[in-house]
Design goal:
Elements: E1 2-3, H1 5-14, H2 18-21, E2 30-34, E3 38-43, H3 46-55, H4 57-67, E4 73-78, H5 82-88, E5 97-98, H6 144-155, E6 164-167, H7 174-188, E7 194-198, H8 199-211, H9 216-224, E8 228-232, H10 241-256, E9 260-265, H11 277-283, E10 287-290, H12 296-310, H13 317-326, H14 331-348, H15 354-360, H16 368-372, H17 378-389, H18 393-396, H19 403-419, H20 424-430, H21 436-452, H22 454-465
Parallel strand pairs: 3-4, 6-9, 6-10, 7-8, 8-9
Antiparallel strand pairs: 1-5, 2-3
Helix pairs in contact: 6-7, 8-9, 12-13, 12-14, 17-19, 19-21, 20-21, 21-22
């Protein structure tokens, strides 16, 4: 059979899932050349390359192995001019190669998967992505415990939290933390052997060690001598009995030698129903930490971090706020939406205004906070705070100084200062206080409370969100 790079790339895209087929970054890629050993693809930026590497390489490689052969590796190169080329939808006939049609061949073993040369980590490498570090991870309430535990593990592996099991939904930062742990340990103790793999890579290498019996000892040495094993998406070992048996023995060897094990999953160990009970039991023997959905302030902070990382300068705050309101699901979608918006503005040579953001992201839907947003006035703030604490507005603005009224009153004063253009004197007048120093004191008290109490901070952030 004869193939062009464009034909192979088109066929690869057709064989990916619906989400991948609609991904704007994959469609920015331009196939350059094809040989029996490599399909070379050009992308417009380092960010696009990193996104494809992280989200789609494994699936692309699997399809490529089926079409060309397992020895054919996807290679991504950066060329800023390819955006315009990809929009032209060209289909050249250069770089034709002859390949053997293997479409009728099938494996006979239940756990045989195409070995993925791109994700199989060489024994002298960690498999870590240097972009994922603790200093680029945005910390807030939903992930604070996970972050603190991960940091502790990176500094004192094999001690208090072994194994560490991190679980949560798609795109919330589990993989980021996993790489951050390994990168921190590698930086602090370069003599330590750190190994990051996905559960799929572990499974593929295990199967290969069975097929090529001479490599079985090398496989076990590779995994069982790691000082730290980081394994992503452990849920994919479900229903893979042989791989579970091998991982059980690997786990036992590492744990017995006080070598650190960190795993991620999309659910708790108890909910991995198709995993052996003995494995679930071991996963729960250490620390199980949940990573939660990002709150509004956290989504804003993440967007600002991504802007800094990717060099997206001078994005208006109202645009970032709009994205944070539209995307409430996960960090990956948040990041993708930001890049989608910037990319379209660049291609269309449009200013990144709020109106443009609403137009481009109209398919995402109306942000729910906009539907319920209240106008920030002193009276509006007093009503919201009084309702939340179950007190009367008349008491809130009275001269009474009971314990039940003092803090709500201070919070309301602080919110007036944060959300309106009112001066301290105007706020004092709105609360029937004769001296503006009362308001200054109230604002200072609430600032101290936010610093010291996470629960109180969450309450105040919730009340502020009613107006933002």
């Amino acid at each position: 059979m004869r193939h062009t790079p464009n034909e192979i790339w088109s066929e690869i895209l057709e064989n990916l899932n619906d989400t991948a087929q609609q991904d704007v970054y994959l469609h920015q890629a331009v196939p350059l050349s094809l040989t029996a050993d490599a399909l070379k693809i050009a992308v417009p930026s380092a960010y696009t390359r990193a996104r494809i590497e992280e989200r789609f390489r494994t699936d692309i490689q699997r399809v490529l192995a089926t079409l060309i052969g397992a020895q054919c590796v996807l290679t991504l190169t950066i060329d800023e001019s390819v955006v315009d080329e990809s929009l032209a939808h060209g289909s050249g006939d250069s770089n034709l190669i002859e390949v053997e049609d293997t479409s009728d061949q099938s494996a006979n073993q239940s756990e045989i998967f195409v070995s993925d040369p791109s994700t199989a980590v060489p024994q002298n490498q960690t498999g870590l992505n240097p972009r994922y570090r603790f200093d680029t991870f945005v910390v807030d309430t939903p992930n604070r415990i996970c972050h603190a535990t991960a940091l502790a593990v990176s500094e004192n592996p094999g001690r208090d939290y072994n194994p560490l099991f991190i679980y949560g939904g798609v795109g919330l930062g589990k993989t980021h933390l996993l790489h951050a742990i390994g990168n921190r340990l590698s930086a602090n103790q370069p003599d330590k052997k750190v190994l990051y793999v996905t559960s799929e890579t572990f499974m593929n290498e295990y199967v290969e060690s069975i097929v090529n019996r001479g490599s079985a000892q090398g496989f076990r040495t590779k995994y069982r001598t790691a000082d730290m094993l980081l394994i992503d998406d452990i849920q994919f070992l479900q229903r893979k009995e042989g791989t579970q048996e091998e991982f059980f023995n690997t786990f036992n060897d590492l744990h017995m030698n006080s070598n650190q094990i960190v795993m991620t999953s999309d659910r708790t160990p108890n909910n991995l129903e198709n995993l052996e009970v003995r494995l679930r039991s071991r996963f729960q023997s250490g620390m199980v930490a949940e990573i939660g959905m990002p709150q509004y302030e956290m989504r804003i902070a993440i967007l600002r971090q991504k802007c800094q990382d990717q060099g997206f300068d001078n994005l208006p705050d109202d645009v970032l706020s709009y994205i944070a309101e539209v995307v409430e699901t996960n960090i990956r979608e948040l990041e993708g939406t930001l890049v989608r918006l910037v990319t379209q503005a660049t291609i269309l040579k449009e200013n990144l205004s709020l109106d443009f953001a609403r137009q481009v992201l109209s398919d995402v839907g109306t942000p729910s906070p906009m539907r319920d947003r209240k106008t920030a006035t002193s009276k509006g703030i007093q009503m919201v705070v009084a309702d939340y604490f179950g007190i009367d507005v008349t008491d809130l603005v009275s001269q009474k100084r009971t314990k039940e009224l003092v803090q709500p009153r201070q919070i309301a004063m602080y919110m007036c200062r944060e959300l309106t253009q009112m001066s301290y004197s105007n706020i004092a007048q709105a609360f029937n206080k004769g001296n503006h120093t009362t308001v200054i004191h109230a604002c200072k008290q609430i600032e101290d409370t936010i610093e010291k109490s996470e629960d109180e901070r969450q309450t105040i952030m919730f009340l502020l969100d009613q107006f933002r």
